[in-house]
Amino acid sequence: MALSGIQIYKLLPQTNCKECGFPTCLAFAMKLAAKQVELSSCPYVSEASKAQLEESAAPPIRLITLKSNGYEVKVGNEVVLYRHEKTFYNKSGLFVKLHTSQIENALIEETRRINQYQVNYVGMDLEVDGIAVEDDTHDPAKMKAAVTAIRSVSKKPLILISSAVDVLEAGLSQLSGETPLVCCANSTNWEKFAELAGKYKAILAIESDKIDEFVELTEKIKSKGIEDLVLIPNGKNLGHNLILQTQIRRAAIKANLRALGYPTLAFCSSPVEAAQAITKYAGFVVLDEFAAELIYSLLVLRQNIYTDPQKPIQVQPGLYEINNPKENDPVLVTTNFSITYFSVANEVEGSGLPAWLLVADAEGMSVLTAWAAGKFDADRIAKAVKSTNVTDKLSKHLLILPGSVAVLSGEVEAELPDWEIRVGPREAVDIPKFYKLALQVN
Q1: Contact 432, 353 (CB under 8 A)
Q2: Strands 93-99 and 284-287, bridge-based pairing
Q3: SS3 of residue 23 by DSSP
Q4: What is the pTM of this model?
Q5: Span 423-435, average pLDDT
Q6: CATH topology (fold) of 318-441
Q7: Which CATH architecture best describes the domain 5-57?
Q8: pLDDT in tens, 123-133
Q9: pLDDT tens digits for 58-91?
């Protein structure tokens, strides 16, 4: 049973050291009771207290990890309903469904496409997390052959889908040393599925369209020694799925109902279903087919949802060379907010023009936001110029400021008297045209 804030407080050191980030131990205890912090934030809690606080310290959504040869997909460990309350921690695992009825060559080719797909988004490489294999032949030999074919070209984690235990076992027999996910158990077959999951140390997924049935099934399966579970809310339509996903998440986090404290899985046949599943609140998302344009949009959506809203995406401050700049090429200045950086860098790179791109440390803020917060000013720009030694690389010292902070030009001139300061365009899309004019003048 979960402890109250006062009960937790009595087990804490009560030193009010503030090292946990809160002014008092009582404030920390209240946050711990609400599942909004982790016990590890307290550096002085005793081992005896840790044992008693284990349940209250554990995240309300259990951490589930699919493992294969060199790959892991972690979901769960979530502590909030809304990302602005704290953050979401483990991104939805994105899987593409293949079928046991596909011929071997087609299966291998499709697996290769999925395995090789990768896109770069604001400096991060995004890719599909794994493959789901659905039994549509009811033939154990076909499942075994499909898993073998997939493993010949991809080592990414697998989800095996069948209503027949013997079919699933044929696939699991080819995954020694791995931790796959098997589904789907229900109220009629849960005992056989629990036995299979225990034998192969696999994650077990449970399917239902009723919250009460999920509670009953998770308790029964846990009594068999199976702790790692995934819930599949099988709603009648898009709206029903949203209701079930939200009810499960809310019951786990707000009511601390351990029987529902597991990640969920969503099977998606359309982009709308997949987008809804990522945002509310699926741990695993299984797509019916592989389409690069769909995968890209979902990966970007997922990245945005699972980025800490209190920590902007940043690039490393410094001097970047684009299109092999020479000593007489101008220097463009921007901040280290990733989207700002890549907007500028992509426009210059696409134009084919050489550029020195000076990225100042603005604590991950965009140009205007950083300027308004006092994080992007003449002093920081001058420090960036001096710390990168860009002056030594150039024969002409021309610095181009973002147009939205034209007000800084006089101050920057005072800080860098040996430099010619110009004000560039406000929007990144206008940089190539402005840059060509700047080159012509010089």
Answers
A1: yes
A2: parallel
A3: coil
A4: 0.78
A5: 89
A6: Rossmann fold (3.40.50)
A7: Orthogonal Bundle (1.10)
A8: 788 999 999 99
A9: 788 999 999 998 899 999 999 899 988 888 999 9
